[in-house]
């Protein structure tokens, strides 16, 4: 019985955590010719601490960070290409192109 | 008697050469050639005439279609304007009636969907202003009525934003355009802050040579001045032009000359005031409540997002906008020259 309660508690916790924020950051990473790039995108807060795990772009160069807290962030595209931005309430789209 | 020996009567027959054959067949060949050429010419003439007739028919159909389309659109425009300013809306009924306001919002939606190059911004702004006055007038209206007006204003702003973002995206997809995202924040001490992305869109690092100076954020009106950096450098006495940006600014129509053959447009994409979180919590998008609460907890009272777009002048202006075909032709020629 105790295990069932723990499972329910964990499930509710996961559900609540995933619905806390609606702010999403998403977009496309492309090269200078506009072609999609397969790379890693890392999100850091304003102090430089990583937010969640880095994500890999898909075939179309798309990346997405879901349910994040609105505020200032630094997006690292690839190894060290850093861009500052502010993620507002709701959906925020930012496309990046590599130099 | 001697008999004359028979003379050689004829010389041995001469073998006919090619020239002889040509001489014999010449008139026939010439006649055949003339006949073939004539047939070809006739066929070509028939084809040209046919093509010309087809073009005429096509032009006629297109003209008639354009004419009937214009006629339908003119009637539709007239009908919508009459419906908006007609007697029923303005005199016979109470202007506070939410049903009539819904009708006006719907008319504006239909107008904006069908006449996106007609400047109907004043109609939107007039209704938005009227609703804003009702929303925050506690004395004249009940809580329930204020909430209904708030919902209607949100719907009106959604319509305006969809239209302006549609135009912005259409321009942003064309070569030579640059889009920059800018966030404006007002804190509890009424201090305004501008947060600009490092990044611009469109795969290049071309920037927009302007400095944004916020003047104020007020109920969906963002008051900013754009300081053109080149002018500032060359003319110290230059006063930056000021703009009031609302959800109803359309980049095709509302844009300024920024550089040689380049224009800049500003689009308001998000506006949030934490005052609405307290007053109209149940009418806000449920998914965004936590985000708004977080802004409030961070000391943010007003939040606005604008997008600045720099684009070639040839893409724009409902009065001086070139036809789409001309744009396409320009793009094709540019591509060829590369």
Describe the structure concisely for a colleague.
The complex is a heterodimer of chains A (99) and B (338). Chain A is α/β, with parallel strands linked by helices.
Which structural category fits the helices and strands of chain A? Answer: alpha/beta
Strand content of chain B: 15-25%
What is the first-to-last residue Cα distance of chain B? 106 Å
Shape of chain A: globular
Mean pLDDT of chain A: 82
The total count of strands of chain B amounts to 8
Described by strand count, sense and barrel closure, the largest sheet of chain A is:
4 strands, mixed
Mean pLDDT of chain B, nearest integer?
Answer: 82
Biggest interface pair, counts: A-B, 27 and 24 residues
**If helices are DSSP runs of H or I spanning 4 or more residues, what is the number of helices of chain B?**
9
What Rg of chain B, in angstroms, do the CA atoms define?
A: 37 Å
Write down the CATH class of chain A: Mainly Beta
Helix fraction bin of chain B: 40-55%
Which oligomeric state applies?
heterodimer
Low-confidence stretches of chain B: none
Protein architecture, described:
The complex is a heterodimer of chains A (99) and B (338). Mean pLDDT of chain A is 82; it is low at 12-18. In chain A, strands 1, 4, 7 and 8 form a four-stranded mixed β-sheet that branches. By secondary structure, chain A is α/β, with parallel strands linked by helices. Chain A contains one helix and eight strands. Chain A has one domain (21-97): Carboxypeptidase-like, regulatory domain (Immunoglobulin-like). The termini of chain A are far apart. Chain A has one helix at 2-18; strands spanning 23-30, 40-45, 55-56, 62-68, 71-77, 81-87, 91-93, 96-97. The longest helix of chain A has 17 residues, at 2-18. Chain B is of the alpha+beta class and 338 residues long. Among the domains of chain B are: 27-85; 176-337, no CATH class. Chain B is 50% helix and 21% strand. Chain B has nine helices and eight strands. Chain B has helices at residues 18-85, 87-90, 98-114, 121-135, 143-172, 229-234, 274-279, 289-297, 324-337, and strands at 178-187, 192-200, 210-218, 221-228, 242-245, 255-259, 262-273, 300-312. In chain B, the strands form two sheets. In chain B, strands 2-1-8-7-6 form a five-stranded antiparallel β-sheet. A three-stranded antiparallel β-sheet of chain B has the order 3-4-5. In chain B, helix 4 (121-135) runs antiparallel to helix 5 (143-172). The radius of gyration of chain B is 37 Å and the shape is elongated. Chain B starts with 17 loop residues before the first helix and ends with a helix. The model of chain B has no long low-confidence stretch (mean pLDDT 82). Chain A binds chain B through residues 19-23, 30-34, 69-72, 82-86, 88-90, 94-97, 99, and chain B through 181, 183, 195, 197-199, 201-205, 270, 272, 285, 287-288, 290-292, 294-295, 298, 303, 305.
